[in-house]
Amino acid sequence: MSRPGTLTVYRWELRKLRAQKRTYLGLGAAVLVPIVFSVAVAIQPGEPADVPFGRYINDTGLAFPLVTLLFGSIWFYPLIAALVSGDIVANEDNNGTLKTILTRSVERSQVFFGKVMAAFSYSILAIILSGVVATIAGIIVSGFNPIPTLSGTLETPERGLLLVAGSLAVYLMPILAISSFALLLSTVFRNSAAAVGGTLMFSLLLELVVIIPGLDGLQPYLLSTQFNSWQGLLRTPADWDPIIRAAWVSAAYAIPSLAIALTVFLRRDVAGG
Question: What is the DSSP code string of 168-186?
Answer without folding.
Answer: HHHHHHHHHHHHHHHHHHH
